[in-house]
Amino acid sequence: MRKNGILHTGKKLVMLVLAFASLNMFAADLDLWKNSTLNKIVQKGELRVGLEPGYMPFEMKDKKGEVIGYDVDMAKKMAKELGVKLTLVPTAWDGIIAGLITDKYDIIISGMTVTQQRNLEVNFANPYLVVGQTVLMNKSLEGKIKTAQELDKSGYTIVTKLGTSAEIAIKKFYKNAKIVTFETEADAVSEVLNNNADAFVYDQPYNLLFMADKGKDKLVHLDKALTYEPLAWAIRKGDPDFLNWLNNFLRQCQEDKVVDFSNELYNKWLVDTTWLKRVQ
Questions:
Q1: How many independent structural domains does the chain possess?
Q2: Angle formed by the axes of helices 2-35 and 240-255, to 10°?
Q3: Membrane spanning segments where (predicted)?
Q4: Residue among 163, 158, 37 at smallest CA distance from 112
């Protein structure tokens, strides 16, 4: 009898311990949700998006000063699905991750390439687009240079934007050519247009659009991508609820064939170039 009593008491104790552990887990999950960015966005009724206007066709200012582009349309869709208002926070690229970490905005939606170095500071949702670095070359080299590799010689100058994945790529790719970086894409590519540099390396979508406009008949596009670069949204670390929502939102946008939002955006900003008239 005493043995049965001890056994019965032991079972009760185990059940109490399990119940206590479950309560602690529930409380921890509740605290995690309360502190999640997703919950705060819903409670405030506002989604704050950090971006750098100037990266065509993802985010740029039109003639009226309004920020438009692929990422802006995606951010509007995201805010609509959350049932909140959208606030765009224009930010210089070299401080955009710091701004996220210090809570100046909730998310970075700004054509950001996923890199291992950036992933040490922020978490990324699943990629929404994959691009690569291509080369816009001075017209004077047409016929002499046929591949990007042939530009890696002493005497050639390669330019790009400071602090971008393009800078990382060309420093790995070009060991003999001179590398010069600039604060903006426009400043960098202008060096090639003005015959002060031989080539500009940058993301393929930007280069395609530049060739359809200012670079037409003035530059040569070596359009074979040098790199594999997935673009993704960045959020602060330690926020699984927000990351889960973003990945599900993205999957819905990409897989829904009735409301094919991702394809609609791609055609609007990366295929059709009529929007260029709004920014010229």
A1: 2
A2: 70
A3: none
A4: 163
Same domain? For 179 and 67 the reply is: no
User: pLDDT (tens digit, 9 = 90+) per residue, 67-101?
Assistant: 999 999 999 999 999 999 999 999 999 999 999 99
Does a structural domain hold residue 99? yes
Distance CA 110, CA 69 (A): 10
Side chain identity at 10, as an amino acid letter?
G
Cα gap 255→258, rounded to integer Å: 9
Q: What pLDDT, in 10s, does the model give residues 147-177? A: 999 999 999 999 999 989 899 999 999 999 9
- The answer to whether residue 13 is domain-embedded is no
Q: Are residues 57 and 88 in the same domain?
A: yes
Give 21-24's long-range contacts (Cβ < 8 A, gap of 24+): none
Question: How many angstroms separate the CA atoms of 124 and 2, rounded?
Answer: 59
Residue 186, CA atoms < 13 Å, CB-side half-sphere: 7
* 15 located within any domain: no
Note the pTM of the prediction, 2 decimals: 0.75
Q: E strands, 190-276, where?
A: 199-203, 219-222, 229-231, 234-235
Burial annotation 167-177 (CB, 10 A radius, 16+ → b, else e) = bbbbeebbeeb
Cβ contacts of 85 within 8 Å, gap of 6 or more: 45, 46, 47, 79
Same domain, 176 and 48: no
Q: Containing domain of residue 64, as a range?
A: 37-130+231-279
What is the torsional sign of CA 46, 50, 54, 56? negative
Closest-CA residue to 100 (of 234, 244, 230, 231): 234
Paired tokens of 43: 């409670």
Look at phi and psi of residue 238 and say left if phi exceeds 0, alpha if psi is from -120 to 50, else beta: left
